[in-house]
Amino acid sequence: MDIVDEVNQAHRELLNGERKVMTLRRRYDADVEDVWDACTNAERLRRWFLPVTGDLRLGGTYQLEGNAGGEILRCEPPRLLAVSWLYGEDPGFSEVEVRLSSEGDGTLFELRHTADVPPDMWSGYGPGAAGVGWDLSLLGLSLHLSGAPPVDENTFHQTHEGRRFITASSQAWGHAHEAAGGPPDQVATAVANTTAFYAPEDEQS
After folding, report:
1. Alpha carbon distances (Å) from 142 to 10, 31, 55
2. What is the pLDDT of residue 1?
3. Most buried residue, 9, 27, 54, 100, by most Cβ within 10 Å?
4. CATH of region 3-203
């Protein structure tokens, strides 16, 4: 598998309004029920995403280890899951929605992240700040569904393969940003900053 092909499997869109809306779509060679279970079963989630705790039902709350938490806003198995996505002391509005639909003998996976983003964060990093993280998550889901071993999240960014993936993801979000009206100079700065954040030069191996 060429790792960059995993980046190219996804289509990215950005609505660059006062509230940012990032959308990722890609197809998986697995049926809807399997993808749904991988995204909602706590035991499976920890294998490709993060450990999760909480009252994992509609109206309940969840907490991802070292990451976001929030409320389960909608749960319509096996097609729709929506949660608030709160991280940090003053996160503002942030929601994530996952929709699944059958496509041939596979599943079309769509993730939409809608959030208020501080202007300085947006001008410095653009959509890649969250987008690269989502691409890494979708890579994890792809490997999990195919039965391939997961990447080592602690060292992947230090490897040549990991850096290629992160750079391609950051550039892909830059293209989505520019397509949504982002100024080219701001986009270039955001892509460079995002790539450096996820794969610092001095940590390459």
Report:
1. 11, 13, 26
2. 66
3. 100
4. 3.30.530.20
The first and second tokens of residue 188, run together, are 């270039």
According to DSSP, residue 158 is labeled G
Collapsing DSSP states into helix, strand and coil, what is residue 57? coil
Instruction: Please answer whether residues 48 and 138 qualify as being in contact, where contact means their C-beta atoms are separated by less than 8 angstroms.
Output: no
Q: Tell me the three state secondary structure of residue 104.
A: coil
Task: List, in order, residues 6 or more apart from 90 with CB less than 8 Å away.
Answer: none
H-state helical runs in the chain: 3-8, 32-40, 42-48, 119-125, 128-146, 160-179, 184-198
Where exactly are the structural domains of the chain?
3-203
Parts of the chain with a pLDDT under 70? 1, 203-205
The two beta strands, 69-76 and 61-64, are antiparallel
The whole-number pLDDT of residue 205 equals 47
CA–centroid distance for 129 within its chain:
10
Please list, in sequence order, all residues whose beta carbon lies within 8 angstroms of the beta carbon of residue 2, skipping any fewer than 6 positions away.
none
For residue 154, what are the contacts with CB-CB under 8 A and spacing of at least 6? none
Q: How far does Cα 191 stand from its chain's mean position?
A: 16
Nearest CA-CA partner of 138 in 103, 175, 173: 173
